[in-house]
Automatic annotation (TrEMBL):
One of its GO terms (biological process) is small molecule metabolic process. The keyword Metal-binding applies. The keyword Isomerase does not apply. Belongs to the FAH family. Residues 70-235 form the Fumarylacetoacetase-like C-terminal domain. Keywords: Metal-binding. This is 2-keto-4-pentenoate hydratase.
Length: 245
């Protein structure tokens, strides 16, 4: 299975696999993943709008995952209530200074991370998606814990799909595009601390579970933005589009 999505249909939210332009309902992909299986089909194709591809209980951000930092890589928490889906307009805060769009690789956890190490991390990961970690960095001088800078409504656009074929060791392309113009072009291979090492670090302090998200940082893929632009985060072949107001 390549891509997993959540779709709002007239009959409710369905988890689907994406087959071209078709959405085919599947059984719970996390239950199947824990069994070492692919989720079986659960009905005929449906029509609907794409939501965020998972509903995390925990969203973890990785900080200092870039060159030249005096402090080591650390993790921080972002409210899962800031998660929104693709093509949802996000209203930028006017009272928090500059807004920065941050294109990041987001890893979606597939099962309880007890026992996760850097070497076996792939056994715990359902797949990868794109995330725009919208931030208000001017607030960090007053709030070093990142609560204010990261808590805007809808400040975690996620999606559109979970790609289960992207590996933790892949040098996956990572781009930030604003109003159709590329502003940052890098790849997962440029993270100083690997995806595996970041996952092992997080799992060494707290247990994550199915659907939780770890955002891997944006050392080379961040740019200031203003209201009224459309931001796209491109991870491999995944393209996450977020209009702003």
């Amino acid at each position: 299975m390549t891509r997993i999505a959540r779709v709002q249909t007239p009959d409710g939210v369905r988890v689907v696999r994406v087959d071209g332009d078709r959405f085919i309902p599947i059984h719970d992909p996390y239950v199947a993943f824990a069994r070492g299986e692919e989720a079986a089909d659960a009905g005929t194709p449906v029509v609907g709008s794409v939501l965020a591809p998972c509903v995390p209980t925990v969203v973890v951000g990785i900080a200092q995952n870039g060159p030249g930092h005096a402090s080591p890589v650390q993790a921080w928490l972002k409210s899962p209530r800031t998660v929104t889906g693709p093509d949802r307009t996000v209203r930028l805060r006017r009272d928090a200074g500059t807004t920065v769009a941050e294109a990041e690789v987001a890893v979606v956890v597939g099962r309880d991370t007890t026992g996760l190490t850097a070497e076996n991390a792939h056994e715990y990961v359902l797949g990868v998606t794109a995330v725009n970690d919208l931030s208000s960095p001017d607030r960090s001088t007053l709030d070093p814990r990142n609560f204010e800078s990261k808590s805007g409504e809808g400040y975690t656009p996620l999606g559109p799909f979970i790609d289960t074929t992207i590996g933790l060791d892949d040098d996956t392309s990572l781009r930030l595009v604003v109003d159709g113009e590329p502003v940052c072009d890098t790849s997962a291979g440029r993270y100083p601390m690997s995806l595996r090492a970041c996952l092992a670090y997080v799992a060494g302090w707290t247990t994550l579970g199915p659907g939780d998200v770890v955002m891997m940082g944006a050392p080379f893929s961040a740019s200031p933005i203003g209201p009224g632009v459309t931001v796209e985060v491109v991870v491999g072949e995944l393209r996450l589009r977020t209009p702003t107001a």
